[in-house]
C-alpha cells in the first residue's frame, strides 16, 4: 500500500515525497483508489455484456454524492491498511478526507436518495447506470451574514476532480429549436442549434460485492468551439462565445425556478440530459442486440421525479423517426421500459410546461406528446364512450385553454408501466389525491416503495464506533441485511451495552460541540440534549413551529426558572432557495432568536439555539451521529417520506414527529413508546380543511402561551428592526396559517414536555435509543432497491 501510494505521488502527481503537500497526498491516495476500482469496473462491465443481464438507466437531475475517498477505501476493504500506510508517511487519513470537496449536485432529499440508491445497486450487484448532469456549479454554498443567508457559487471543479473519467467516445448531438421536416414520408427534427453532450464517468463501488457501477454525468461542448476568422480580426471574446454558450446548459444546478428565463434554461437542461441519456441507453443496447423486441428484457429506464419526463417523447422520437419503428410498436416498448417515482405532492413543484415554450425549443417532442395525448383520448373514448365527459380534461397530458400546457406528471404516469410513491402514506396520497383518475384507469400501475438510506455512509462511515459496537454485539450479518439490527433489541435491557452506546453518543456530541465552538464561537454543553432539525428550509417542514416552541420554552423557563428544565441545545441547519423570501426570513429569525436567548443569563446554561451554516452531506455526517432528538414536524400529508428521519433513528436519535411520510413506518418499527408522535393526522387535516372553519386567529386568541410568542415576534423583541418579522406574523394570523402551525402547536408543546420527562430518566432514554437503532433495519436503501428490482424493474443481480 505504501509503495503504491508513493508511486502515485511521485509518478502520477509528479512531486517528490519530501515536497508533497496534504493536497498532493489526497490526490495520490484518490488515484490509488481509482485505479483499484477501475479493475473491478472493467470486470463488472464485461460480466454485464457476457451475461446479457438487464441494466437499469436511472435518470436523475440530481445526485448528492458526498465525498468519495473513504467510501472507495471502505468498498475496497483497505480503509485501515491505507490509514496505516499513510501514517508511516506521517500523514493522517482523516486530514486528507477533510480536504476533499463535497460534490453537491443536488438540492436535498431527492438528490441524496439517488446517491444512496447508486450505492445500494452496486452493493447488491444490480447493473445500473446513473444518468445526470455534470453541473459546473453545484448547490450554492450558504454563508450567513448578520443572520441573513448569502448564496456563494459552489466552484467544486476549481481543483481537479480525481474521480471522473472523461469519455470522449461517448458523445451525442443534442438539438434545440429548429423545425420538423418531412423526408420520404417520415417526420424528422432538423435545423436549430446543437451541442455535444460528452460523458464523464464516476465509478460507483459496491460494498461487500465486487461490482462497480457507473454514474454518467453529461458535460456540454460546442460543436464548433471557436470561430477562427472572428478571432483573427481581433474579436477574441466573440470568437469564443459558441463555447461559452454551449456550456450554459450545464452551468448551474437549479436551486429554484422563480424566473421565466430560469424556467426555459431548466427545460433546456432537462432535454439535454434526457436526450443524451436515452441515446446512450439505445446505443448500448444496439451494441449487443439487433432485435428491438428484446429491449424490455435488457433495459429499464427509471424517471426520478418528472425532471426527466421528456424521456418518453425522446424515446418515441428516436424509435419512430430515427430507427423507423411503427408508432404502436415503439409505444409498446416505451411503456414496458419506463417507470416513474413521484417525490412530492407540493403543487408548486409539479412540472407543467407551456406549449409555446416547448414549440420553440422542442417542436418535434411537442408533436409527439400531442400524438400521445390524442391516442389516449381515443382509448378513453373506446372504453367509456360518452359516459364520462369530464374524464379527459382531468387526465389530458396537454391541458387545453388559452395557454395550453404539458403536464409532465400525467405524461410520466401514462408512459410508465409502474408509478410509485416513496412511503406508504405518500403512495396512498399519490393514488387518492394526485392521480385519482389514473389510479382508477390503471390500478395495477401504482406501487409503493418506501425510501431507504445507505447504511455504509450513514452508519459505517459516519459513526464507525457504533458500527463496531454492533459488530461486537451481534456479529457482522447486519452489514448485508440491515433488518438483522433487530437482534439488538434485547440489548436494551443490557446495562453494559447501553453504557457503551451512551459513551459513543457522548463522544460524537463532543465532536459536534467542538465544531459548533469552532464555527460559531458558541460553547454548548455536550451533556445537554442535542435536539436536531436539519433539512431544506421550507414552510411545509415547519422550522417555524420549532422556533415558536423554542421561544415558548424560553418564556416558560424565565417564568419558572427553578423548575427542573433539562438542558437542551437546539441545532438547526438547512438552505433556503435563493428566491424563497419567507424561508430566508425564517433563517434570519432563527439567528435573531438564538442571539437573544443564548446570551440570557437566566436560561443560557440550559437552552441554546444554534444554526450551522452550509448544511451538506459532510456536515450531516457530523450532526446526525451526535443527535439525541430528531425533529420531523411537517404538516401531515406534506412530506413525501423524509430520509433524514431514517438516518437519525439509525444513529439512535428519538423522533419527535407528526404522522407524516415515513415517520409513520418508523413508528410501526420502533413501537409507540419509543417515538413522540403529535399533531393532526392526514385525515384530520383534510377534515379541518373541508370544514372551512379553520381560524388561526381564534387559536391565537385562546392560547396564551402562543399569543405571547407571536406578540413577541410582532413587537420585534428579538430584532433591531421591529417590523422585520411582520411577514411571518401575518402569514400565521392573516394568511390563515397555510401549514397549520397553530393547530398543531399545543400538541407539539405537550409532546415536547413528554420528551423532557423521558430525557430525565437517562437509563430509560438509552433503552429507547437502542430500540430505535434496532427498528431502523427496514430503512436500508438495499431493501428499497430490492423492492424496485422485484416489483418495478424485474431486474436480476450479478453473482457476488
Ligand atoms: C423541484 C424543483 C423544481 C425546479 C427547480 C429545482 C427543483 C428541485 C427539486 C424539486 C423537487 C424536489 C422533490 C424532493 O426533493 N422531494 C423529496 O424527496 C425525498 C426523496 O424521496 C423525500 O424523502 C422527501 O420527503 C421529499 O420532499
What report would you give on this structure?
This protein is α/β, with parallel strands linked by helices. The chain has 2 domains: 52-66 and 102-416, 3-Layer(aba) Sandwich (Rossmann fold), CATH 3.40.50; 472-782, Glycogen Phosphorylase B (Rossmann fold, 3-Layer(aba) Sandwich). Helix content is 50%, strand content 15%. The strands form 5 sheets. It has a 9-stranded mixed beta sheet, sandwiched between helices. A 6-stranded parallel beta sheet has the order 19-18-17-20-21-22, sandwiched between helices. It has a 3-stranded antiparallel beta sheet with strand order 12-14-13. Helix 21 packs across helix 32 (762-775). The mean pLDDT is 97. The structure holds ligand 26V. Residues 107-110, 113, 254, 256-257, 266, 343-344, 349, 422, 451, 639-643, 661 line the site of ligand 26V.
Amino acid at each position: 500500500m505504501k509503495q503504491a501510494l508513493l508511486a502515485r505521488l511521485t509518478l502520477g502527481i509528479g512531486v517528490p515525497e519530501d515536497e508533497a503537500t496534504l493536497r498532493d497526498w489526497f490526490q495520490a491516495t484518490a488515484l490509488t483508489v481509482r485505479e483499484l476500482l477501475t479493475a473491478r469496473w472493467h470486470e463488472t462491465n464485461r460480466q454485464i455484456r457476457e451475461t446479457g443481464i438487464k441494466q437499469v438507466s436511472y435518470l436523475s437531475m440530481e445526485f448528492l454524492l458526498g465525498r468519495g475517498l473513504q467510501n472507495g477505501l471502505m468498498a475496497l476493504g483497505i480503509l485501515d491498511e491505507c490509514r496505516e500506510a499513510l501514517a508511516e508517511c506521517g500523514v493522517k487519513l482523516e486530514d486528507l478526507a477533510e480536504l476533499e470537496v463535497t460534490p453537491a449536485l443536488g438540492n436535498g432529499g431527492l438528490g441524496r436518495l439517488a446517491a444512496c440508491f447508486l450505492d445500494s445497486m452496486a452493493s447488491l450487484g444490480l447493473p445500473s447506470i446513473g444518468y445526470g448532469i455534470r453541473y459546473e456549479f453545484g448547490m450554492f454554498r450558504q454563508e450567513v451574514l448578520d443572520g441573513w443567508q448569502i448564496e456563494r457559487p459552489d466552484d467544486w471543479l476549481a481543483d481537479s476532480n480525481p474521480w471522473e473519467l472523461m469519455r470522449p467516445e461517448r458523445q451525442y448531438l443534442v438539438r434545440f429549436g429548429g423545425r420538423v421536416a418531412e423526408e420520404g414520408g417520415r417526420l424528422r427534427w432538423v435545423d436549430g442549434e446543437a451541442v455535444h453532450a460528452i460523458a464523464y464517468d464516476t465509478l460507483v463501488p459496491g460494498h461487500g460485492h465486487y461490482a462497480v457501477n457507473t454514474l454518467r454525468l453529461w458535460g456540454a461542448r460546442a460543436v464548433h468551439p471557436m470561430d477562427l476568422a472572428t478571432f483573427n480580426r481581433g474579436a477574441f471574446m466573440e470568437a469564443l462565445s459558441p463555447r461559452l454558450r454551449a456550456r450554459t446548459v450545464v452551468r448551474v444546478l437549479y436551486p429554484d425556478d422563480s424566473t421565466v428565463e430560469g424556467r426555459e434554461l431548466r427545460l433546456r437542461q432537462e432535454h439535454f440530459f434526457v436526450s443524451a441519456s436515452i441515446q446512450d441507453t439505445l446505443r448500448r443496447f444496439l451494441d449487443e442486440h439487433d432485435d428491438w423486441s428484446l429491449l424490455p428484457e435488457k433495459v429499464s429506464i427509471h424517471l426520478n421525479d418528472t425532471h426527466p419526463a421528456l424521456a418518453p417523447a425522446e424515446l418515441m422520437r428516436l424509435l419512430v423517426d430515427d430507427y423507423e419503428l411503427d408508432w404502436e410498436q415503439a409505444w409498446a416498448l416505451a411503456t414496458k421500459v419506463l417507470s416513474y417515482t413521484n417525490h412530492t405532492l407540493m403543487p408548486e413543484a409539479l412540472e407543467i410546461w407551456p406549449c409555446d415554450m416547448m414549440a420553440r425549443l422542442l417542436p418535434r417532442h411537442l408533436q409527439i406528446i400531442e400524438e400521445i395525448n390524442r391516442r389516449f383520448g381515443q382509448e378513453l373514448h373506446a372504453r367509456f364512450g360518452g359516459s364520462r365527459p369530464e374524464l379527459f380534461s382531468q387526465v389530458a397530458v396537454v391541458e387545453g385553454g388559452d395557454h395550453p400546457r404539458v403536464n409532465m406528471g400525467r405524461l410520466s404516469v401514462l408512459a410508465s408501466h409502474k408509478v410509485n410513491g416513496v412511503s406508504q402514506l405518500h403512495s396512498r396520497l399519490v393514488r387518492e389525491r394526485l392521480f385519482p383518475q389514473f389510479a382508477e384507469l390503471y390500478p395495477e400501475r401504482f406501487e409503493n416503495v418506501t425510501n431507504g438510506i445507505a447504511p455504509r455512509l450513514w452508519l459505517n462511515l459516519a459513526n464507525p464506533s457504533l458500527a463496531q459496537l454492533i459488530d461486537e454485539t451481534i456479529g457482522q450479518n447486519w452489514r448485508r441485511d440491515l433488518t438483522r439490527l433487530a437482534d439488538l433489541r434485547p440489548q436494551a435491557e443490557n446495562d453494559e451495552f447501553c453504557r457503551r452506546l451512551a459513551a459513543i453518543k457522548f463522544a460524537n456530541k463532543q465532536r459536534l460541540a467542538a465544531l459548533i465552538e469552532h464555527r460559531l464561537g458558541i460553547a454548548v454543553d455536550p451533556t445537554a440534549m442535542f435536539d436536531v432539525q436539519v433539512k431544506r428550509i421550507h414552510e411545509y417542514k415547519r422550522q417555524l413551529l420549532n422556533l415558536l416552541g423554542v421561544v415558548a420554552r424560553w418564556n416558560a423557563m424565565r417564568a419558572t426558572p427553578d423548575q427542573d428544565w433539562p438542558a437542551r441545545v437546539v441545532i438547526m441547519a438547512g438552505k433556503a432557495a435563493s428566491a424563497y423570501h419567507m424561508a430566508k426570513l425564517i433563517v434570519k429569525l432563527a439567528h435573531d432568536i438564538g442571539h437573544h436567548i443564548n446570551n440570557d443569563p437566566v436560561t443560557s446554561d440550559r437552552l441554546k439555539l444554534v444554526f450551522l451554516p452550509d448544511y451538506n452531506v459532510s456536515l450531516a455526517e457530523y450532526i446526525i451521529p451526535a443527535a439525541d432528538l430528531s425533529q420531523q414536524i411537517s404538516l401531515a400529508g406534506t412530506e413525501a417520506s423524509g430520509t433524514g428521519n431514517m438516518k437519525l433513528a439509525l444513529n439512535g436519535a428519538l423522533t419527535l414527529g407528526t404522522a407524516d411520510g415515513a415517520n409513520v413506518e418508523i413508528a410501526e418499527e420502533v413501537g409507540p413508546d419509543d417515538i413522540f408522535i403529535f399533531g393532526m393526522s392526514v385525515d384530520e387535516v383534510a377534515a379541518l380543511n373541508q370544514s372551512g372553519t379553520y381560524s388561526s386567529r381564534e387559536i391565537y386568541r385562546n392560547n396564551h402561551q402562543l399569543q405571547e410568542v407571536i406578540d413577541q415576534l410582532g413587537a420585534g423583541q428579538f430584532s433591531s428592526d421591529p417590523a422585520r418579522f411582520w411577514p411571518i406574523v401575518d402569514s400565521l394570523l392573516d394568511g390563515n396559517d397555510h401549514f397549520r402551525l397553530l393547530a398543531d402547536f399545543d400538541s407539539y408543546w405537550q409532546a415536547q414536555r413528554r420528551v423532557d420527562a423521558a430525557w430525565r430518566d437517562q437509563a430509560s432514554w438509552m433503552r429507547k435509543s437502542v430500540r430505535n437503532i434496532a427498528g431502523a433495519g427496514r430503512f436500508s436503501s438495499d431493501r428499497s432497491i430490492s423492492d424496485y428490482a422485484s416489483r418495478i424493474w424485474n431486474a436480476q443481480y450479478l453473482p457476488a
